[in-house]
Amino acid sequence: MILQPRLLSITTRCVLLNSPRTPKTEAPILGFGVYASPSDKCSHSVKTAIQNGYRHIDTAQFYENEAEVGEGMRLSGVPREELFIVTNVRRISGGKGRWEGGDGYVDLFLIHGPTVGPEGRKAMWQALEKLMEEGGTREIGVSNFGAKHIEQLLSYAKYKPVINQIELHPWCPQPFLAQFCTKHCMLLQAYSPLAHATRWNDPTISAIARAHNSDTESRIKGNADVFEFKLNELEMAKIAELGKGLEDGQAATCPYNIHCE
Predict the structure, then answer these.
(1) Tens of pLDDT, residues 170-225
(2) Which strands make up the sheet holding 137-143, listed edge to edge?
(3) Is 191 one of the catalytic residues?
């Protein structure tokens, strides 16, 4: 029997293998991020994204726009249970976020980074485990964690992280960390997959983009159309070459903390 390639779409979901739930939680594979989205525009952007098919919204306490994300969710008219909301915490605050009058929940709560040290990470992880048991979040995970941070966490974790959210793009492929997370059934979630637009002029990417270019109704809808074309094997091989020869984290566009204590 010949298996046909799976066709992906903006509504395609993937199973979070470390989920303690039965059945295991599924997350939409494409998310809409609201980093640096100003408060006077964020709710409208979130509403527009959801109405154009996005079901995965990514925010953080550091962004200071969680309330606006919640408002955009309400304005969209899409039922809450159809959405997958992710937020990040840098420090323990005791709050659940402001999604639905303070009594709502998020689908995935992440520790935003490992920079608070071993004891700080342990305290934060145990706080998230407690929050999950209380219903404030459905799943928990980490962001920007290196292999040694995850190994330390697994030594005391009651629940394993379902996701490690890291900078991931052709110039920052992080193969060792990717293999490590796969070994521990942790899904890798890429942020800055377009390298913060710092590589638009790369000749390899520009040539491939021209071969697949098409006009879209809007930028938000256009970003969701990433499944409307298919790269051939030669194009994939050329992209894979872009990260070779670069030192670990050399081409990262965000603070690279996977080696911190």
Answers:
(1) 999 988 999 999 999 999 999 988 888 888 889 999 898 888 765 444 556 666 66
(2) 32-33, 56-58, 84-89, 106-111, 137-143, 163-167, 187-191
(3) no
Give the separation between CA 35 and CA 86, rounded to whole angstroms.
12
Q: Which of 63, 105, 191, 256 is catalytic?
A: 63
Q: Does the active-site annotation cover 149?
A: no
Catalytic residue (one of 56, 105, 112, 149): 112
d(CA 119, CA 136): 23
Residues contacting 2, CB < 8 A, separation 6+? none
Tell me the pLDDT tens digit for each residue of 103-146.
589 999 999 999 999 999 999 999 999 999 999 999 999 999 99
d(CA 24, CA 36): 32
